Amino acid sequence: MSIAFRSMGMSIVEIGLPSFVESLAGSLTSYGIIIGTFSVTQCIFQYPYATISDKLGRRKVVLFGMLVYLLGTVLCFTAQDIAQLIIYRAIQGAGAYTSILQAIIGDIYKKDEHSKGMGYHTLYMNIGYFLGFVLGGFMSSFFGFRSIFLIQGLLIIFSFIVIFIVLKEKNNVKQKNEEEKNMDFNIASIKILLKERQYIYTLLLNWVRWFLFGFITVYLI
């Protein structure tokens, strides 16, 4: 559910943001920078959040990430110029809890059921994106450009409440054995990954996919 709400909030903003940028005397380039800034800070904070969640537990880190994301959303709602909007979108991206939601799926589903869990993850994410595009256009047209951040904030608050009440911590750090410690992500493991051609190809394809998505979105909207 939280995955669907997060995707919905993101697509709501993507569909209504061009009009908001235009109202602040921004250009198409400004829109691209605003979208890109969110993606960059989200990428930067994914690894620290994931590492901390392995030590402190998923629930705490997800809730903290949601609060950061909510703070950025509220600030975006109050933005008065393009520079402020870029900075506030960067703060939004710093609430990078997506990877933790995926890790929670790994904690909940057994090893032989991970594909099933990721299938549900993808399903809810795509449903959220679809509903967000529809709702974002409606909200932007009838309630003004800033309403996209208002509805996004409400979705985050609802998700926060659901996770706070429903999610129980399953990641017991104290029981982490030596084998798991050896799997910790560090510089040495990064070097090993970079030597794997399949990993490099996957990274490149993923980069091309998101580049094309962002590029096409800017000019379609």
Could you give a quick summary of the protein structure above?
With 221 residues, the protein is mainly alpha-helical. It has two domains: 2-175, Up-down Bundle (Growth Hormone, Chain: A), CATH 1.20.1250; 186-221. The chain contains ten helices and no strands.
Task: Explain how this protein is built.
This protein is mostly helical. It has 2 domains: 2-175, MFS general substrate transporter like domains (Growth Hormone, Chain: A), CATH 1.20.1250.20; 186-221. Helix content is 82%, strand content 0%. It is built from 10 helices and no strands. The protein has helices spanning 2-23, 28-56, 58-78, 82-94, 98-108, 114-143, 147-166, 178-181, 187-194, 197-220. The chain is globular, with a radius of gyration of 18 Å.
Largest sheet: none
Percentage of residues assigned to helices = over 70%
Under the CATH scheme, which architecture of the largest domain would be assigned? Up-down Bundle
CATH H-level homologous superfamily name of the largest domain: MFS general substrate transporter like domains
Work out the radius of gyration.
18 Å
Q: Which characteristics define this entry?
A:
221 residues; mainly alpha; Growth Hormone, Chain: A; 2 domains; 10 helices; 82% helix; globular
Task: Outline the fold blueprint.
Elements: H1 2-23, H2 28-56, H3 58-78, H4 82-94, H5 98-108, H6 114-143, H7 147-166, H8 178-181, H9 187-194, H10 197-220
Helix pairs in contact: 1-2, 1-6, 1-7, 2-3, 2-4, 2-5, 2-10, 3-4, 3-7, 5-6
